[in-house]
Specification:
The complex is a heterodimer of chains A (464) and B (72). Chain A has 464 residues and is α/β, with parallel strands linked by helices. Chain A has a single domain (8-453), classed as Amidase signature (AS) enzymes (Alpha-Beta Complex). Chain A has helices at residues 8-16, 22-40, 48-63, 107-114, 157-164, 181-187, 221-231, 275-287, 299-317, 319-325, 331-341, 345-365, 398-401, 407-411, 441-453; strands at 43-46, 75-79, 118-123, 143-144, 147-151, 170-175, 190-193, 213-218, 262-265, 293-294, 371-375, 388-391, 394-397, 416-420, 431-436. In chain A, the strands form three sheets. Chain A has an eleven-stranded mixed beta sheet with strand order 1-3-2-6-8-7-14-15-11-9-10, with helices on both faces. A two-stranded antiparallel sheet of chain A has the order 4-5. A two-stranded antiparallel ribbon of chain A has the order 12-13. The chains are: A alpha/beta (464), B mainly alpha (72).
């Protein structure tokens, strides 16, 4: 095992077999964070004492001959909107730093630690998760390990940077409009945005309750599945978390995809993408012999409705903070939240009505298809500080629009695995969404795993 | 299907500003108006579709009959 690049499952196996210890793994992780975080801007908080206590307990359990849980000793990180007991949950903001430290861990932290994983810290993000860039006025930007002059994407930019730079094998992000999938695409990682209501959001600072989900970023599909399995299950602390089942998926993802019906999303999901992005997607479709094309009807309206819901719910959530201290917001966030708070209720209610209409239309597609492929981002990582990019011949703002292809999917709560497309040397990462019907994370994971094992996807080596 | 309305976002912003009681710096107003105009354009895309009266569904968060403390 090479500790720096080992996967979560390799680390857990090496510790279980006595090839290394949880403490040694943790110390290597803390050293790597200390060495590289300054240039990456990935972590905002490191919980070394807590992590050392956990790692020592795992090593003691092994020495005592006790059976270790499946992720024993695996270092992990969370986006800094997740509660960590004893740490103030900043959610990318300056304002929340005046809050008392969290008294309880978020459910994702509780469940991963129950599976033996070791929390090492919290990661950078766009302020209050309202952005697709990974830039933050208070903590500085997270930087893309494939090219440190470029964006990670956001809002889970710090978690993506931490995993892509091999600081940790897995990290937990949140995805309201694309905040796992956009950074997974720009940093060249696998990411899982589960079905809305599948994984508990308890202890995660909210953004848009109608859309918020949480999920893992990793360098392999098996790690995605292993972490997802550890996170599964109902949670009375999150009233939305009410999945119909919680069967482990890791044992099933390598079953093959002979019976999985695949199609490529056309129309909206191909319009405006860079030639490079389209070519990469078409190449994968050709390798997979995907000939069927499907059109998600009125996807541009779905994206528009998600945009309005997000602005209105986000603006309303933050209204007390805007009233008390608008000057303390990141300027890139503040004006959008104020505008959101001004949105008439009629627009919001109509957006919710359109949500069901669009859901029903897309469900008809799933009568004949199991997974749908669509680009995760229309372009590769923009330069840090870049304000616009070219889309369909027009210059449009980066911050609200990098998630053009992810927003319509979140709008109806579908599960998605983002897979890093195979790239030529020197090319920047780019991801594809594998979209499945509600609660069918298995189909998306099986296809992603098949693509990975056939060598049709690839993570990008970080620049040192 | 889509009703193209005149841009009333300056009037909307002017009406809402005192109701929201947010101290707004004049330097922020251009971006606020630009974003509100973007939201208005987006709302135009779905606001006037022929919805059935039965299709009135808010986000599935509120559940009656359970005490709030159970959610904490």
């Amino acid at each position: 095992m090479k500790p720096a690049t080992a996967t979560a499952r390799e680390i857990a196996a090496a510790i279980a077999y006595g090839e290394t210890t949880a403490t040694a793994t943790l110390e290597a992780t803390l050293d790597a964070i200390a060495t590289r975080n300054g240039e990456l801007g990935a972590f905002t908080d490191v919980v070394a004492h807590r992590a050392r206590t956990r790692a020592a307990a795992i090593d003691a359990a092994r020495s005592a001959g006790r059976r270790l849980p499946p992720l024993a000793g695996v270092p992990f990180a969370v986006k800094n909107l997740f509660d960590i007991a004893g740490v103030t949950t900043r959610a990318g903001s300056k304002i929340n730093r005046a809050n008392a430290p969290a008294s309880l861990d978020a459910t994702v932290v509780v469940r991963l630690e129950a599976a033996g994983a070791v929390l090492v810290g919290a990661c950078n993000m766009d302020e209050y998760a309202y952005g697709f860039t990974g830039e933050n006025a208070h903590d500085g930007p997270s930087r893309n390990p494939a090219d440190l002059t470029r964006m990670t994407g956001g809002s889970s930019g710090g978690p993506a940077a931490a995993v892509a730079a091999n600081l940790v094998p897995v990290a937990i992000g949140s995805d309201t409009n694309g905040s796992i999938r956009v950074p997974a695409s720009l940093c060249g990682l696998y990411g899982l945005k589960p079905t809305y209501g599948r994984l508990s959001r308890a202890g995660a600072f909210p953004f848009v309750a109608s859309l918020d989900t949480v999920g893992p970023l990793a360098r392999t599909t098996a790690d995605l599945a292993a972490v997802y399995d550890a996170l599964q299950g109902r949670d009375p602390r999150d009233p939305v978390c009410d999945p119909p089942d919680d069967a482990p998926l890791l044992p099933l993802i390598s079953e093959g995809i002979g019976d999985v019906r695949m199609a490529l999303a056309d129309d909206y999901f191909l319009s405006g993408a860079s030639d490079d992005a389209r070519a990469a997607l078409e190449s994968l479709a050709s390798d997979l012999k995907i000939t069927q094309r499907v059109t998600l009807p009125e996807a541009h309206r779905a994206r528009a409705a998600a945009f309005v819901l997000t602005a209105a719910e986000g603006g309303t959530l933050h209204l007390p903070r805007l009233q008390a201290g608008a000057v303390d917001f990141d300027p890139d966030t503040r004006e959008r939240l104020i505008a959101g708070a001004m949105i008439p209720a009629a627009w919001v209610v109509q957006a919710q009505r359109f949500r069901r209409w669009f859901h029903n239309e897309v469900m008809r597609i799933f009568d004949s298809v199991d997974v749908i492929f669509a680009l995760a981002t229309p372009i590769t990582a923009p330069k840090l500080g870049q304000k616009t990019f070219t889309f369909d011949g027009a210059e449009i703002p980066v911050r609200p629009h990098l998630g053009l292809y992810t927003q319509p999917i979140t709008f109806i709560g579908l599960p998605v695995v983002t897979v890093p497309l195979k790239r030529a040397p020197g090319e920047l990462p780019l991801g594809v969404q594998i979209i499945a019907a509600p609660w069918n994370e298995l189909a998306a994971l099986k296809v992603a795993h098949d693509i990975e094992t056939r060598g049709l996807s690839a993570i990008v080596d970080p620049k040192r | 299907m889509t009703v193209k309305r005149a841009d009333h976002t300056p009037q909307l912003a002017a009406a809402m500003e005192p109701l929201l009681a947010i101290p707004i710096d004049s330097a922020w107003r251009p971006q606020i108006l630009a974003f509100l105009a973007m939201a208005a354009h987006n709302a135009d895309l779905f606001a006037d579709l022929p919805y059935d009266d039965a299709n009135d569904e808010a986000a599935p968060v509120f559940r009656p009959g359970r005490p709030a403390e159970e959610m904490l």
